[in-house]
Amino acid sequence: MKDLYQIILDETPDHWPVVPFWSLYKKTKQTGQPDEELLSVYRDYGVIPKSSRDDNRNVESEDLSGYQLVKKRWLVTNKMKAWQGSIAVSKFQGIVSPAYFVYEPLHQENDDYIHFLLRSQLYTSIYGRISKGVRIGQWDLEHEALRTVPIALPPLSEQADIVANIRVEIKKIDELIEVAGGLKAAMASREGALLSLLLEKKSALINYRVTGHIESSDTLNKAAAGGVV
Question: Where a domain ends, among 111, 134, 152?
C-alpha cells in the first residue's frame, strides 16, 4: 500500500510542508455541560446546531451531561462517517455526542483552509483506507490512526488565497444547485442528474484548490469529469 506521506507529497506542491495531524490537534473530552447548545456534524454542512435541521433522525439522550464540549475552532469527527466527509472545524460552541471525537487546536493555521482540506476528496479517501471494519457501514476511524495522518500546509498567505478562491467559486455552484434543486422537485430525472453533477463539481473544485491547483476553469471541468482523488 502506498505510504500516506507519499500520497500527500504526490498531490501537493513541493514547497508545502507536511506535518502529522497530532501536531495540529489534541484529542479532548470535556463533559458535564448539558445546558450548552446541541451540535451535530454533517457531511454537507459541517458542524451546525442540531435544531437547525429537521432531517437528523438521531435521538439524543435525555441526560446530556455525558455529551462533549465543543468550542469555536475545535475539530469534530464522526468516526463512523469520516470517510464520507463528516469531519469539520466548528464555528459554534456547544456539545456533541459522546460517540464523536473532539479535538482542540494547537495551531494558528487558517481554520477555513483546514476545514476544506480535511473534508476534501483526497483526505476522505485516506480516512477510508485507514478505517477498520468488515463493511462500509461499519467502518470505524480510530484516533490512533487519525493522529498520524499527514497534513499539507501551504504558507498562511496561500491558505487565505485558496479559501477566498473556493468561496467565490462554490458560491456560483451553490446558486446553480439551488436552481437545480427546485427543478428536480418540479420535474424529472434530468434535473436530478444535473444536481448530482453540480455536487460532484463542487467536491472536485474544493479538492483541486486545497491541493494547490490554480488552473483554469476548463482544466477544473476536465478534472471533475475524470475525478480528482
Answer: 152
